[in-house]
UniProtKB/TrEMBL annotation:
<dbReference type="InterPro" id="IPR003333">
    <property type="entry name" value="CMAS"/>
</dbReference>
<dbReference type="GO" id="GO:0008610">
    <property type="term" value="P:lipid biosynthetic process"/>
</dbReference>
<keyword id="KW-0489">Methyltransferase</keyword>
<keyword id="KW-0443">Lipid metabolism</keyword>
<dbReference type="Pfam" id="PF02353">
    <property type="entry name" value="CMAS"/>
</dbReference>
<keyword id="KW-0949">S-adenosyl-L-methionine</keyword>
<dbReference type="InterPro" id="IPR020803">
    <property type="entry name" value="MeTfrase_dom"/>
</dbReference>
<feature type="region of interest" description="Disordered">
    <location>
        <begin position="418"/>
        <end position="438"/>
    </location>
</feature>
<dbReference type="GO" id="GO:0008168">
    <property type="term" value="F:methyltransferase activity"/>
</dbReference>
<dbReference type="InterPro" id="IPR029063">
    <property type="entry name" value="SAM-dependent_MTases_sf"/>
</dbReference>
<dbReference type="GO" id="GO:0032259">
    <property type="term" value="P:methylation"/>
</dbReference>
<protein>
    <submittedName>
        <fullName>Cyclopropane-fatty-acyl-phospholipid synthase</fullName>
    </submittedName>
</protein>
<dbReference type="InterPro" id="IPR050723">
    <property type="entry name" value="CFA/CMAS"/>
</dbReference>
<keyword id="KW-0808">Transferase</keyword>
<comment type="similarity">
    <text>Belongs to the CFA/CMAS family.</text>
</comment>
<feature type="domain" description="Polyketide synthase-like methyltransferase">
    <location>
        <begin position="157"/>
        <end position="416"/>
    </location>
</feature>
Length: 438
């Protein structure tokens, strides 16, 4: 009888049709695979049951969250090596159903089934979000539940990961040697300058998080800010920070859906890392709502992650791991789609800046913060939640590095009738920090 690791390696290679680039260590302590490569640790045969009951990314995700599988070695290297089997499958690659028409593959699947015995459905990790069907997504109630799932996991945990800036979006790096705190400050200041904030202006910060943009705008630029979030924990944390800064007379934090904001017009709107939650079917409404809340001549800064366009957009599906464990109901759109919808809502798009590499650097710093404080991160949440964040941030860093996804700052204006946008002739005069080396 072969050791479990060698059997797993042989069966997996028959199923995927190529050699595995990583080693395997099985529950019996045996190992197989290329020497020196990162090791995929299969701690329990229950991991096989998860994959057989839910083939694909969601089964892998459940095994990872439950601790049934792990990586020994460089996590980034392991994910890079496994990307072609998980995220980078060619559009014309055969599905598992198609592969099972091959007698050899069917035999391998039966052998894997025997190795996984007893074939009982494993419990779903408690960190997975259950929700109604797609027809009920992006209602105010479902959005509030999804936001709470992601953000109400404890402010102390986020502080551990994000650092003192408490900014949960892509930083803006002068160089890879900059500190995370400096890069986040520079990002907030870049947005403030793109919006041309001046003392006395009113700023609406949509998806205000823990209040960092609101505080920076009020303290450094003398504006009055309304910040809205659906997270009770974020709002409580932001209000406490604002009181400590002595800015309660300039900043109001509301637990409110942006669709319920009725006290416009505002001079400027910032939406930083929030639009990914809106959903494709609601995005034009989102753009119309923000357009209506701006005064003529007012500016919107929309900072948003984008995915690459697909040859068949109708076949696009969300990432199962991200949807179940990280950003429930979150959706990414190509940049061109976002710009087009903003223009359809009446905005004049004046500037687009891609800062994809900056997010990769940011995520690597967040991963390093979590790994350096791993026992505390587990204590503040749960082992499963900490594992979710480590995997999601490391995989996302690689996705930005390899151009599978990007992030863009889109500056748009509610241009008044007559066409006087109020924009400077040289629109990039705000960008006096020229990033280098990224």
């Amino acid at each position: 009888m072969q050791d479990a690791a060698l059997r797993l390696q042989n069966l997996a290679e028959q199923l995927v049709g190529t050699e595995l680039p990583v080693r395997i260590r099985a529950w019996d302590g045996s190992e197989a695979g290329p020497p020196g490569a990162p090791t995929l640790v299969v701690r329990h045969r229950r991991a096989l049951r998860r994959l057989l009951w839910k083939p694909g990314e969601l089964g892998l995700a459940r095994a990872w969250v439950a601790g049934d599988i792990d990586v020994d070695g460089d996590l980034y290297q392991a994910l890079d090596l496994l990307a072609e089997f998980i995220w980078e499958r060619a559009d014309d690659a055969p599905s598992l159903t198609e592969k099972l028409r091959d007698p050899q593959v069917r035999a391998a699947a039966r052998a894997l089934l025997a190795l996984a015995a007893p074939f009982l459905p494993p419990p779903v990790p408690r960190e997975e979000m259950r929700r109604p069907g797609r027809l009920h997504r992006h209602t105010k109630g479902s959005d509030k539940k999804a936001i709470s799932h992601h953000y109400d996991v404890g402010n102390d945990f986020y502080a551990l990961v994000l650092g003192p800036s408490m900014v949960y979006s892509c930083a803006y790096w002068e160089s890879p040697d900059s500190t995370l705190a400096d890069a986040q400050r520079d990002k907030l200041d870049l947005i403030a300058r793109k919006l041309d904030l001046k003392p006395g202006m009113r700023l609406l910060d949509v998806g205000c998080g823990w209040g960092s943009m609101a505080i920076h705008a009020a303290r450094e630029y003398g504006v009055r800010v309304v910040g809205v979030t659906l997270s009770q924990e974020q709002a409580a944390f932001a209000r406490k920070r604002i009181a400590q800064e002595g800015l309660t007379d300039r900043i109001e934090i509301r637990v409110q859906d942006y669709r319920d904001v009725r006290d416009g017009p505002y001079d400027a709107i910032s939406s930083i890392g929030m639009a990914e939650h809106v959903g494709a079917e609601r995005y034009l409404d989102y753009a119309h709502d923000l357009h209506a809340l701006l005064k003529p001549g007012g500016r919107l800064l929309n900072h948003q992650i984008a995915r690459r366009p697909q040859r068949d957009e109708s076949a696009y599906s969300v990432d199962e791991f991200i949807d179940a464990y990280v950003f429930p109901d979150g959706e990414l759109a190509p940049l061109g789609t976002t710009v087009g919808l903003l223009e359809r809502a009446g905005f004049e798009v004046r500037d687009v800046e891609s800062i994809r590499e900056h997010y990769a650097l940011t995520l690597r710093h967040w991963v390093a913060n979590l790994e350096a404080n791993w026992p505390e991160g587990v204590r503040l949440t749960s082992p499963g939640r900490a594992r979710i964040w480590r995997l999601y941030m490391a995989a996302s860093a690689l996705a930005f590095e390899h151009n599978r996804i990007g992030v863009n700052q889109v500056l748009a204006v509610r241009t008044p009738e007559g066409g006087k946008s109020g924009m400077p002739l040289r629109t990039r005069q705000w960008g006096d920090m020229s990033p280098s080396g990224v």
